[in-house]
Every structure is written in structure tokens, then in C-alpha cells.
């Protein structure tokens, strides 16, 4: 290997390390929201992010001025969408996730994260997902209604503790 190529590899690795140090936390948070896992226990989100970062590193030299964050985010969302479409119904039983978006379907989580967390416009979200803009708007509104719904209040206890109502 010629010295010039070795220098390019070192430069590439340093640039990528700096990128991951700066954007890794936000990307992990995005992946955690998509998978609806708790923040402290998120193996699926970490795996999803690892795949997206590996893909970004593989084509790092071909980005040519493109924002690496956008590239990683786009692959992260595409990979999540494809895996839920492909394996969603056939996945083995998993304990229910405890993340803030756990009550939403994968499509609702994806659209909500794209629109609100990442700030992607309706038109671009619709184009990326191959859906009509009206569908994206409807799914987002439905997801927001679920997220903003107040938590059910516990039923009041009848009588004193330890007594059975007759």
C-alpha cells in the first residue's frame, strides 16, 4: 500500500470517528424512539444504528458533500421500515417495549419520529415512504392523538383496605 492511501484511510477513520462522536447520541435516540425500547435497555436500537453507521462508513468517500447525518438517518429509517414490513408479523414473542412511543404501530412511530423528532416535512416524508401526503398527515394525527391521550386514572378503591364490598 502506498503511503498516500494509508494517509487517506487514517483521515477517513478520523473524520468518521468525529462524526460518530457528534451525531451518535442523537441517532441512537432516534433509533430508540423507532424501536419503542426504553432508553437504558435498547439492543434493537443499537443494532439498527450499528447497521446504519456501517453503511455510512462504507460509502463515506462517495458522499461528496452530502450531509452524512442525512445519509445515516435515511438508511436508519429505511432499514427500520423494511424490517418491520418484512418480519413484523413473524417476529418471535418479545416483552412489550417500555419506550414513550410503545403504544404506536411501527408505521405511526416512523412517521411521528420523521415529522416531529427529525423535522422532515410532510412532502419529503411521503416521498421517502412512498405514501400520499394525506396518508402521512392522517397517520401523524392518529399517532399524536394516542400519544397525547391522558393516562387512565386508577379505579378508586371501594370501602376500606382489606374489606370486601358486599
Outline the structure in words:
By secondary structure, this protein is mainly α. It folds into 2 domains: 86 residues; 50 residues, Orthogonal Bundle (Arc Repressor Mutant, subunit A). 63% of the residues lie in helices and 0% in strands. It is built from 6 helices and no strands. Helix 1 crosses helix 3, helix 2 crosses helix 3 and helix 4 packs across helix 6. The radius of gyration is 21 Å and the shape is globular.
How is the secondary structure organized here?
Blueprint: H1 3-35, H2 43-58, H3 68-87, H4 106-117, H5 122-129, H6 133-148
Helix pairs in contact: 1-2, 1-3, 1-4, 2-3, 3-4, 4-6, 5-6
Pfam family, one: Sigma70_r4
Domain RNA polymerase sigma-70 region: 101-145
Protein name: RNA polymerase sigma-70 region 4 domain-containing protein
Short characterization:
This is RNA polymerase sigma-70 region 4 domain-containing protein. With 166 residues, the chain is an all-alpha fold.
> What distance separates the N and C termini?
87 Å
Largest sheet: none
The gross shape turns out to be globular
Order of helices and strands: HHHHHH
How many domain modules?
2
In terms of DSSP E residues, the strand content is: under 5%
| Helical content class | 55-70%
- Report the average pLDDT across residues: 85
Point out poorly predicted stretches. none
By oligomeric state, this entry counts as single chain
* Radius of gyration of CA atoms, rounded to a whole number: 21 Å
Count of individual helical segments:
6
- Number of extended strands: 0
Judged by helices, strands and strand pairing, the structural class is mainly alpha
Protein name: RNA polymerase sigma-70 region 4 domain-containing protein
InterPro entries: RNA_pol_sigma70_r4, RNA_pol_sigma_r3/r4-like, WH-like_DNA-bd_sf
Pfam family, one: Sigma70_r4
Organism: Streptomyces thermodiastaticus
Amino acid at each position: 500500500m502506498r503511503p498516500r492511501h494509508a494517509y487517506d484511510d487514517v483521515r477517513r477513520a478520523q473524520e468518521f470517528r468525529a462524526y460518530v462522536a457528534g451525531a451518535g447520541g442523537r441517532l441512537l435516540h432516534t433509533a430508540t424512539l423507532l424501536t419503542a425500547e426504553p432508553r437504558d435497555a435498547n439492543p434493537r436500537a443499537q443494532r439498527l444504528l450499528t447497521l446504519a453507521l456501517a453503511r455510512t462508513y462504507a460509502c463515506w468517500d462517495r458522499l461528496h458533500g452530502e450531509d452524512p447525518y442525512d445519509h445515516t438517518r435515511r438508511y436508519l429509517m429505511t432499514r427500520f421500515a423494511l424490517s418491520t414490513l418484512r418480519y413484523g408479523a413473524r417476529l418471535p414473542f418479545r416483552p412489550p417495549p417500555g419506550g414513550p412511543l410503545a403504544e404506536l404501530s411501527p408505521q405511526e412511530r416512523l412517521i411521528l419520529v420523521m415529522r416531529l423528532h427529525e423535522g422532515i416535512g410532510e412532502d419529503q416524508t411521503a416521498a421517502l415512504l412512498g405514501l400520499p401526503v394525506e396518508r402521512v398527515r392522517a397517520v401523524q394525527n392518529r399517532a399524536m392523538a394516542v400519544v397525547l391521550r391522558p393516562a387512565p386514572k386508577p379505579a378508586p378503591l371501594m370501602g376500606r383496605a382489606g374489606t370486601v364490598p358486599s
